[in-house]
Amino acid sequence: MIPNLRVIGVPEHFNLPWLEAIEDEKFLANDILITWSDEPGGTGAMCKALRDDKADCAVLLTEGIITDICKGNPARIISGYVVSPLIWGVHTGGDNPLKKYAKSFGCRYAISRYGSGSHLMPQVDALTKDTSIPEENYSVVGGLEGALKSLEAQETDVFYWEKYTTKPYVDSGLLRRIGEFVTPWP
């Protein structure tokens, strides 16, 4: 019997090599069955899936899984996937009056969920600037689609997400990128 490995990742360009290898049956040629699932909820949702035995492997953010392992997740990091730091776009809604990135730290933040990259990276960014963001300033919106709705309705003001994934929304005017934050580790 061929072992089945349940793998999850965000539905973004980072995971195209996985999807192409599955489609081309590269894993099956080596007697490995990969069942891929998209997880639009991001790193926080993937950490939960690993904890709940809903996935065997996840392609997720280092900072998120390390945080979750420190909180008791029995998962292990088996490999790095990229060696360059992620560039986070700092976004606001197209019609939001917020103009300056430096003024964003007292605003309302859209996050996928607690423990996700969109939650952790504003905290890291604030720390690098000797400030902090109160927990009550975070609003769980469930991923990119939820953030787009929340920002457009001006229920939230700021959203951190990988800058190339959000480029079409910036180009269309739905989002405005007011800054960037480069992850301070590879």
Provide a descriptive summary of the structure in words.
- The chain is of the alpha/beta class and 186 residues long.
- The protein contains 6 helices and 8 strands.
- The protein has helices at 16-23, 43-51, 62-70, 117-128, 144-152, 167-172; strands at residues 4-9, 33-38, 57-59, 87-93, 109-111, 138-140, 158-162, 175-182.
- Helix 4 links the parallel strand 5 and strand 6 (138-140).
- It is globular, with a radius of gyration of 17 Å.
Quick rundown:
The protein has 186 residues and is α/β, with parallel strands linked by helices. It has helices at residues 16-23, 43-51, 62-70, 117-128, 144-152, 167-172, and strands at residues 4-9, 33-38, 57-59, 87-93, 109-111, 138-140, 158-162, 175-182.
Structural features:
alpha/beta, D-Maltodextrin-Binding Protein, domain 2, five-stranded mixed beta sheet, three-stranded parallel beta sheet, 8 strands
State the low-pLDDT regions, or none. Answer: none
As a percent range, the share of strand residues is 15-25%
Class by SSE composition:
alpha/beta
Radius of gyration (Å): 17 Å
Q: Name the average pLDDT.
A: 94
Order of helices and strands: EHEHEHEEHEHEHE
Q: Per CATH, what is the topology of the largest domain?
A: D-Maltodextrin-Binding Protein, domain 2
Q: What helical percentage do the residues reach?
A: 25-40%
